[in-house]
Amino acid sequence: MIERTVTANGLYHHVITWGDENAGKTVLLCHGFLDMGLGFFKLAPLFAAAGYRVVAFDFRGHGETEWVGRGGYYHFADYVLDLHELVPQIVPGSAPFHLLGHSMGGTVATLYAATHLERIKSLASLEGYGPPPEDPAKAGDRLGRWLSGVDGVRANESRVALPDLDAAIARLARRNPSLDRECLRFLATHSTEPHPREAGITWRFDPLHRTLSPTGFELARFLRFAAMIERPSLIVQGEFGIRSGDDAARIAAFPRAQTQVIAGAAHMLHWTHAEQTARAVLEFWAQT
């Protein structure tokens, strides 16, 4: 595993590579909300062992990638622009590559794939085709809540303080009770850093991520992007994962989609069911 820093869209991005740098087949992994590139620590080595060059990175304000700084925020278009500027540097050449995203990263990957078809060999989305749509009548309330949330973060300049790594492990364990201690320790170690002002440690991500985004998920817009992806697509769902109520319509929007359901898995299937997930994705790539 090799780690490095790449500048894209004016920010330093943390980039991780597994496998042979000279492998002819490249896979690019996009992590989910409040996750990180190293969150693929179980999945990526399985892809590398199958002969792929595997690249992951931390989105802005996540992991070891820079925060946006004063006056900035985190919009989906920003993530896509980051990816647009990262790809030429971390997937050099013009050969198409496999793109995989989990959760938020799956949605970002869909928007990127729709606008970069010449670079994409296939798209795999793990629990990543968007949250439930929001009633447009609530748009004003949502914007107001966003403004209040940002005010609160900037006024307090607060980051959660945890006494030690065991406390971080306990937090992760409450949300992911099926993960073993070794996995929890790895995730907690790489998700935290020394607190800048208090004793103990804190999560690496920008606290602005805790605020409600100013705009809700627009289903019609997402369906239009999905319809543009004339490439093989795989939608992977956990048996107990997040459902939107209109899943069939979202999946049907992808012109060349197939689906896989991972038995016993929930939303974080790349952590809890890595081998089953890798098998489904590798079989899909073999077909393409």
Task: List its traits.
8-stranded mixed beta sheet, 288 residues, globular, 10 strands, alpha/beta, 38% helix
Describe the structure.
The chain has helices at about 45-50, 75-90, 105-115, 140-155, 165-175, 180-190, 220-225, 245-255, 270, 275-285; strands spanning about 1-10, 10-20, 25-30, 55, 95-100, 120-125, 190-195, 200-205, 235-240, 255-260. The protein is of the alpha/beta class and about 290 residues long. Strands 1-2-4-3-5-6-9-10 form an eight-stranded mixed beta sheet, with helices on both faces. It has a two-stranded antiparallel ribbon with strand order 7-8. Helix 2 (about 75-90) crosses helix 3 (about 105-115), helix 3 crosses helix 7 and helix 5 (about 165-175) packs across helix 6. It is globular. The two termini are about 25 Å apart.
Low-confidence stretches: none
Shape: globular
Tell me about the biggest sheet? 8 strands, mixed
Overall helicity: 25-40%
> How many beta-strand elements?
10
- What is the H/E string? EEEHEHEHEHHHEEHEHEHH
Oligomer description: single chain
What portion of the residues fall into strands of 2 or more residues?
15-25%
Number of helices: 10
The computed structural class is alpha/beta
Radius of gyration: 19 Å
Alpha-carbon distance between the two ends: 26 Å
Provide the spatial order of strands within the biggest beta sheet: 1-2-4-3-5-6-9-10
Write down the overall mean pLDDT.
Answer: 93
List the topology elements.
Layout: E1 2-8, E2 11-18, E3 26-30, H1 43-49, E4 53-57, H2 76-90, E5 97-102, H3 104-115, E6 120-126, H4 139-156, H5 165-175, H6 181-191, E7 192-194, E8 201-203, H7 219-227, E9 233-238, H8 247-253, E10 257-262, H9 269-272, H10 274-287
Parallel strand pairs: 3-4, 3-5, 5-6, 6-9, 9-10
Antiparallel strand pairs: 1-2, 2-4, 7-8
